[in-house]
Specification:
The complex is a heterodimer. Chain A is an all-beta fold. Helices cover 0% and strands 54% of the residues of chain A. In chain A, the strands form two sheets. In chain A, strands 2, 4, 5, 9, 10 and 11 form a six-stranded mixed β-sheet that branches. In chain A, strands 1-3-8-7-6 form a five-stranded antiparallel β-sheet, with no helix packed on it. In chain A, strand 4 and strand 5 form a beta hairpin. The radius of gyration of chain A is 14 Å and the shape is globular. Chain B is mainly β. Classes of the chains: A mainly beta, B mainly beta. Chains A and B meet through strand 4, strand 5 and strand 10 of A and strand 4, strand 5 and strand 10 of B.
């Protein structure tokens, strides 16, 4: 099955700085890669996703890049704000077959004011 | 916009009791997924249903069962509860789109505590 590794497990940045979280996946058949933000006591909230036919996608301060050859994808948050503090999960899915998401282990992002 | 609704939000049970968790998907979504998240861990896929039929099965214990009803809501039934079942249980829903990845939207979860 699919295996997703995520780094770092914790990340502290100063407000206004950028944050980068990286994930690798094992199954080359994976073709959909969402990122979720989870605040304490809440469910995962989809913040951005990318499909395997695209190398980069941007939505305001958030961007995701995908390198299919190396089987890794990254989340980039620019101009971080204290409200960006949360746990971020990457995930991978093999569309068309088993449709369950395989999650990375999560990154606790803390934005220091 | 309507979101995935889960009930109850919190549930306290004792060992060997049973529990039923409910999930109401986003309107027009035809697929429901259940995930279990232990403390400090990532969500682990349990089971999913598409058009009221079980579609995929993950690491769901035999003590657990689930179904999706005609109105697309789903219930996760958990019997002979163990201390290790204490976790957050999330339901997600998606609208199947032939040939496209299903975007999964998560509910707020049910926190189950087994004493």
């Amino acid at each position: 099955g699919e295996n997703v590794e995520q780094h770092p497990s914790t990340l502290s940045v100063q407000e206004g700085d950028s944050a980068v979280i990286k994930c690798t996946y094992s199954d080359s058949a994976s073709n959909y890669f969402p990122w979720y933000k989870q605040e304490l006591g809440k469910g995962p909230q989809l913040i951005i996703d990318i499909r395997s036919n695209v190398g980069e996608k941007k939505d305001q301060r958030i961007a995701v890049t995908l390198n299919k050859t190396a089987k890794h994808f990254s989340l980039h948050i620019t101009e971080t704000q204290p409200e960006d503090s949360a746990v971020y999960f990457c995930a991978a899915l093999i569309s068309g077959s088993a449709r369950q998401l395989t999650f990375g282990s999560g990154t606790q992002l803390t934005v220091l004011p | 916009a309507a979101g995935v609704i889960q009930s109850p939000r919190h549930l306290i049970k004792e060992k060997r009791e049973t529990a039923t968790l409910k999930c109401y998907p986003i309107p027009r979504h035809d697929t429901v997924y259940w995930y279990q998240q232990g403390p400090g861990q990532d969500p682990q896929f349990l089971i999913s249903f598409y058009e009221k039929m079980q579609s995929d099965k993950g690491s769901i214990p035999d003590r657990f069962s689930a179904q999706q009803f005609s109105d697309y809501h789903s219930e996760l039934n958990m019997s002979s509860l163990e201390l290790g079942d204490s976790a957050l249980y999330f339901c997600a829903s998606s609208e199947s789109d032939r040939g496209m990845p299903d975007i999964q939207y998560f509910g707020a979860g049910t926190r189950l505590s087994v004493l």
